[in-house]
Amino acid sequence: MAIEIIPIKTRILTHKDDIVEAIREYCQTKTTKDDVIAVAESVVAITQGRAVAPENIHPCLLAKILCRFFPQVGSISTRYGMQALIDEEGAMRVFCAFIVGSLAKLIGVKGMFYNLAGEQARLIDDFTGTMPPYDKCVVYGPKNPVELSEKITNALGCYGAVVADVNDLKKAAILGTSKNVSDAIASKILIDNPFGNGSQKTPIVIIKNYPTIIETI
Amino acid sequence: MDFFFFLTLGEQIIFFILLSILIVMTFFYSYCKFQGDENFTILTEQTSLLEKKILSSKKASFIFKIPYFNFGKQDAIILDVFPRILLPQEQFGQAIVTAKLEDSNSRRDDYYMEALPVLLLEGGDFYLTIDIESTENNIATVLTNMVDVPIAFYYEVLGRCHLKYRKHNFIFRDEYFTAN
């Protein structure tokens, strides 16, 4: 059975929007009790006011030094992205993760820093990572994704909800789900990145007939 | 090294701690120096006229292509860039001259510049639109009398170091507007 995923076009959602209300506004008439709503993590974070302009981030010496050791494809390779991580996870945790991660890398174990430095290490998006006008900001990962998924489920009366971080490199990280929805299955369904966080403005998707999908996967 | 043996054990420990800090700081400093930073440059000397449009009897529009390049050792992110025409009415009162800058891959009507990654040793093109609107005469007469147009490009660029604000000056010689 083909999985039906409907991208929902929205206006640009900002820190002035309530994400639950926005989802209700755009999805209420298109959602049934068997559907799961999936929402992109960056948009959730933006509506939670977690996009910060670099002028408002003040990098400490640790951020200035550590950022130099990360390749520029990552979001913590700028001192502002690294400071954002330090602000969220604490300087000591980030520093220890860096030391252990570096030692692990010396013996060929990669990715240890990201496992130890806290979930924000993977979630922070720095400049150019999101749609305008937030392309000039560092966007932190969202807060309380599980709680938010439950709120969306209750507000829309749907089967469940998911907050996900999906990219075009076939990586789908599920940050939070309502209790009916499986992380692993949601990740499989969203692997092809149905979201369009950029000019497509489709940060929400509806996964139709989720209980039927589970039976076929 | 002889002086070292005259120190007490406590002084030797302090000496070693200070020496270690100095070595670590020197290592980081050298590493950062070696790693370098972006060197984003707007290559105004390579400016070329892309299009000239006479929009009405009072208004003309010129689109110029201005290359940019990152000569640095690190990628750059251009968070914003905008042009400022520095031709006051006191100097040239025959027309109002305005400018708009866009990236060639992301042309927009709203004067917004999307944050633009420029990888090291790569570049691209800006499109600069200069609109000249006559205040009195026919636009053809204004273009004949046109003077040099100084312009400043202000931009906000980020590499490995702190966010930098830079200004780049250029003068569009009157020939750019009077030719053809």
Please explain how this structure is put together:
The complex is a heterodimer of chains A (217) and B (180). Chain A is of the alpha+beta class. Chain A is 39% helix and 15% strand. Chain A has helices at residues 19-27, 41-47, 61-66, 79-89, 91-106, 112-116, 120-123, 145-156, 183-190, 210-216; strands at 5-8, 36-40, 51-52, 138-139, 160-167, 171-177, 204-207. Chain A has a five-stranded mixed beta sheet with strand order 1-7-2-5-6, with helices on both faces. In chain A, helix 1 packs parallel to helix 8. Chain A is globular, with a radius of gyration of 18 Å. The mean pLDDT of chain A is 91. With 180 residues, chain B is an alpha+beta fold. Helices cover 23% and strands 42% of the residues of chain B. Chain B has four helices and nine strands, in the order H-H-E-E-E-E-E-E-E-H-E-E-H. In chain B, the strands form two sheets. In chain B, strands 1, 2, 3, 5 and 7 form a five-stranded antiparallel beta sheet that branches. Chain B has a four-stranded antiparallel beta sheet with strand order 6-4-8-9. Chain B is elongated and about 90 Å long. The mean pLDDT of chain B is 93. The interface between A and B is medium-sized, with 17 and 19 residues.
Task: Please report which band the strand proportion of chain B falls in: under 5%, 5-15%, 15-25%, 25-35%, 35-45% or over 45%.
Answer: 35-45%
Helix share bin of chain B: 10-25%
User: Which of globular, elongated, flat, extended, rod-shaped describes the shape of chain B?
Assistant: elongated
Number of helices of chain A: 10
Oligomeric state of shown chains: heterodimer
Summarize the topology.
The complex is a heterodimer of chains A (217) and B (180).
Chain A: E1 5-8, H1 19-27, E2 36-40, H2 41-47, E3 51-52, H3 61-66, H4 79-89, H5 91-106, H6 112-116, H7 120-123, E4 138-139, H8 145-156, E5 160-167, E6 171-177, H9 183-190, E7 204-207, H10 210-216
Parallel strand pairs in A: 2-5
Antiparallel strand pairs in A: 1-7, 2-7, 3-4, 5-6
Helix pairs in contact in A: 1-8, 4-5
Chain B: H1 2-5, H2 9-35, E1 40-42, E2 48-54, E3 59-70, E4 76-85, E5 95-103, E6 116-118, E7 123-134, H3 139-144, E8 149-158, E9 164-172, H4 175-178
